[in-house]
């Protein structure tokens, strides 16, 4: 497994997103070559923010975006 951290800034809408988690890959040797046969991502943190007057305003922080809406 390996960790990933992603940070995105949308300059047009002043929205920021941070995402952190881990990938778990399963490999199999096929015809003498190692291939990824399955990839799974488990997120541990999602943070959504807006920039208002130079300040970060947290819109969402948690593990599931199922019910999140920017509006």
What is the strand and helix layout of this fold?
Elements: E1 2-10, E2 15-30, E3 33-52, E4 55-62
Antiparallel strand pairs: 1-2, 2-3, 3-4
How would you describe what is shown here?
This protein is mainly β and 71 residues long. The chain is built from no helices and four strands. It has strands at residues 2-10, 15-30, 33-52, 55-62. Strands 1-2-3-4 form a four-stranded antiparallel beta sheet, with no helix packed on it.
Q: What is the rounded Rg? A: 17 Å
Largest sheet: 4 strands, antiparallel
Portion of residues within helices: under 10%
The oligomeric status of these chains comes to single chain
SSE run: EEEE
The average pLDDT score comes to 84
The largest beta-sheet arranges its strands as: 1-2-3-4
Strand content: over 45%
What structural category do the secondary elements indicate? Answer: mainly beta
Q: What is the straight-line distance between the termini?
A: 35 Å
Alpha plus pi helix count: 0
Give the overall shape, derived from the CA principal axes: elongated
What are its keywords?
0% helix, four-stranded antiparallel beta sheet, mainly beta, 4 strands, 71 residues, elongated
Sum this structure up briefly:
With 71 residues, the protein is mainly β. The protein has strands spanning 2-10, 15-30, 33-52, 55-62. The model has no long low-confidence stretch (mean pLDDT 84).
């Amino acid at each position: 497994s390996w960790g990933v951290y992603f940070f995105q800034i949308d300059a047009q809408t002043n929205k920021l997103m941070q995402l952190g988690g881990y990938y778990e890959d399963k490999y199999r040797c096929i015809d003498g070559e190692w291939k990824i046969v399955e990839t799974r991502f488990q997120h541990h943190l999602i943070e959504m923010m807006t920039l208002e007057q130079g300040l970060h305003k947290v819109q969402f922080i948690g593990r599931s975006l199922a019910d999140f809406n920017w509006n």
